[in-house]
Amino acid sequence: MTDATPGPWSTDSPSSATPGTVTLTDLLRVPLHRLRLVAAVAMVGLLAALGYVLLVPAAMSASAVVAVRPVVTDAFTPSGAGADRAVNMNVESGIATGTEVVQRLANSAGGDPRDIRNALEVEVPTGGQILRFTYQAGDAQRAVQSANMAAQAYLDVRRTMYEQQRAEMLRSYDASITKVVAQQAALQKRAGTTKDTAAADALVAELAGINNQLTQLNAARTEIAAVDVNPGWVTQTAEKALVTSAGHRPLYLVAGLLGGALIGIVLAYAWESTDRRVRSVADGRDATGLPLLGTVRRPPLRGSPRAVDADIRYVAMAVAERVRQPARVALVTAREDATALTAGLAVALAADGREVFVADDNGRVERLRTTVLADRGRLPVDPSRPLVPKPRPAGSTSTAAGGTDGTATRRPSPHPPGARPSTDPDATLTLPRVASARPENGRVTDPDEVAVGVGSVRFGTWRQGADHGLVLFNAPPAESDERGVAVARQGSAVVVVERDRTRQSDLRRLVERLRAAGVTPLGFVLTRNGRA
After folding, report:
1. 388-401 pLDDT, tens per residue?
2. Residue 74 pLDDT > 80
3. Count of CB atoms within 10 A of residue 213's CB?
4. Can you tell me the distance from the alpha carbon of 107 to that of 101, in angstroms, rounded to the nearest whole number?
5. Which value, to the nearest 10 degrees, does the dihedral of the CA atoms of residues 338, 341, 346, 352 take?
6. Which of 69, 152, 340, 471 sits 20 to 30 Å CA-CA off 116?
7. Are 158 and 231 in contact (CB under 8 A)?
8. What is the pLDDT, as a whole number, of residue 259?
């Protein structure tokens, strides 16, 4: 059997002409293949969040509510349509978190004003005149005390501001009234000393205007003095019964897990960009430029490898189509072990009547033999072989009691031949029959030979298989041993690619080495996890 005529080296892959389309499955494939990395980083994030929850004490949060009211002269006057806009709540919120309030808290409760400012939070509901003071502290007592003190400090600061404004306005009115009173006294003195009637009438008229102005100033001052400068009330004080734990601690665990998973996905993409693996048939074609001989899939269940065996038989048919005896086929890999695939191909080729010699120079002969014996037991049943024993021919002696012709059945002797000595000198000695070493198909087998179907599989080294017609060489990894490429120069090669394990860079380097050595591989086989 001579090797098939090698064809020209194909440098362009079949999929190079068509641009690849990235789908959602392609995006999810990388994190799924790097699932261990993603899971490990996610667990690190979860443990970090768990450590934070357990080691960092929970902050207690207390809240006090203040109702803000506008400053009005008459508290019993009905409010208008714009009563909710009578107070600028943005200004009130700024005053509540201002320096004066924080400084009063620092002076009363003690502590750094920066820490107090970070722990104090003021919320303003939309469209309302309410300030909610929330204070976070390490214990409930301090949180309650600080929240109430912050609310009261805001009211005191705001009342002080209103009182200062009222005092300034009253002082201004008092100065104006004093000035008008002085003018009134001067006019009255001039009116008392004037003898001219016309001048007296003018002074009286001017004095009446001064009196009217003085009356208005007094009325305005009275109105300002009657202003209620109360800025509001504390409608809800902070209590220990209402103290809650600040933040949602279980959310930290969820955030740590999701954050770790996200970082793991990013690391998976970064790792994949530097360590590209063969993920599909298209990747194998792009990396090798060789035709596909077949794919060996993983069985759906551990106990049902039929799909894998069928895939190996398809690969065997593809290999047999491309070679003619005598043939030397080397199964080469980059870094992986092709022992399982070599044994499976040997069984599939021998089942059709071929004499296959499996060669290995790396100490894996016993593994090959064990795998061949295991695969031989899963061969499909030959329909040409009868499943039941043939019927006895007519006239044969029946072993059942009572013959059909009425003759007495001979009872077996209790003494088998040779059990006791005979006194007859001419008696014949009966020797026991020796079992033959012939198998079911009638062919004598060698002790080192494994019968598979109508063929056989033998094992040995590469030199021992020199006289055999079909030799499968279980080559060692090409990255560390060159014997596989050297054997392929004497025959042909089948490149074995393991999905999700074989690196594309190693696969390209292997194909380049085969090409440089003058070897044209028959094609490549895509497997998964060594066997499937």
Report:
1. 444 445 544 444 34
2. no
3. 15
4. 10
5. -160
6. 69
7. yes
8. 92
Q: How is residue 431 written in tokens?
A: 């020797």
How far apart, in whole angstroms, are the C-alpha atoms of residue 95 and residue 130?
14
d(CA 166, CA 226): 10
- Give the CA distances from residue 60 to residues 32, 117, 524, in Å, rounded to whole numbers and listed in that order: 41, 16, 66
Omega before 326 within 30 of 0, i.e. cis: yes
Look at residue 263 in the predicted model and tell me its pLDDT.
94
Angle at 515 between CA 514 and CA 516, to 5 degrees: 90
The helix-helix angle for 89-96 and 99-109 (nearest 10°) equals 30
- Name the DSSP class of 158: H
Query: 528: phi > 0 → left, psi -120 to 50 → alpha, else beta; which?
Result: beta
Instruction: Compute the distance between CA of residue 33 and CA of residue 229 in angstroms, rounded to an integer.
Output: 71
The helix/strand/coil state of 65 is: strand
Q: What is the pTM of this model?
A: 0.55
Distances (CA, A) of 532 to 306, 329, 499: 11, 21, 9
Block residue for tokens 């970064």: 270
pLDDT for res 20: 53
Report whether 149 contacts 101 (CB < 8 A).
no
Q: What is the mean pLDDT of the chain?
A: 78
Specify the pLDDT at position 260: 92
Determine the Cα–Cα distance for residues 342 and 446; give it in Å rounded to an integer: 21
Bigger pLDDT: 306 vs 42:
42
Q: Within a 13 Å sphere around the CA of 339, how many CA atoms are in the beta-carbon half?
A: 16
**What 3-state class would DSSP assign to 68?**
strand
Element housing 26 (H / E): helix 24-33
Specify whether the CB–CB gap between 362 and 331 falls below 8 A: no
State the Cα–Cα distance between residues 380 and 377, nearest whole angstrom: 9
Compute the Cα dihedral for 132, 133, 135, 141 and give only its sign: negative
Phi, psi of 206 (to 5 degrees): -65, -35
Three-state secondary-structure class, residue 227 = coil
